[in-house]
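Researcher: Please translate sequence to structure tokens.
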Amino acid sequence: MTVFTSGVMSDARLKQLSDHLSSVPPGRLSFVVNLNNPVQTPAPKNEGRRIAKFLSLMGPWCTPGFNIYRTDFDIEFLFDLIARYGMHRHIRLGLASPMPGVESIYIKPDDVRGIISRLYTFRPMLDRLDIKPGLDCGFPLCGFTDEQLGWLMRHSGKFKFGCGPAIDLTPDLNVYACFPLSGFHKRSLFEFNSMREVHDFYQGLFDHVRSETAGIYEECDGCVHREEGRCSGGGACQVMNRFVGEAPVRLVEIERGLSKPCLSV
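Model: Translation complete:
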């Protein structure tokens, strides 16, 4: 089981976590801890202390996660944290994604290839320290050179540049496709009989989106890698973000979701 967390919690909650989970083998439970570069994105002092305390207790159960939201990002600080706290030698890398209809900082499609090139500059240290990069959704296959793809394949043996529903469940038992699309067709969990039904519902919406626009680039339309399922053409949220501000000419399933970003429909 994998749990995503910021690592920020009260001392009392952290003690409970440690008491109950420290006996669980790291192979059965893992935390993906989303971390920010302390120089580029300074955290409040108290927050930094809580993250350090979480990692000192739960480090062997943790994989560092890093969301790229600027083109000059730096991940070297993660190498120190992995060594200091005994974290998994793997980094989950994600692209900051847009929330359609909401002002936010995110990586634009035209910047993705530059992001990939910068990531590749860290290859010597990743290789020397035997730390494996793992890509979350949103990265298009065409953004990589053959050399870069070969490097990734050597680490993982298999890569698929996909984007599908990553179902989130809220405390009030609502569900949505993923965090960037938290306002797109949010539903009550009680409308479904199984998680398979939830997934299929949102996969159907994603398919509607892809039928309207193939991907984040014009060349996604007709791309053999997308047609054969090796690449989804970038993130669905990036595709839908292109629809915001357009005339209402899309399929009704899409328009209803975009016109009511905070409500169920």
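Researcher: Any highlights?
Model: The first helix runs from residue 11 to 21.
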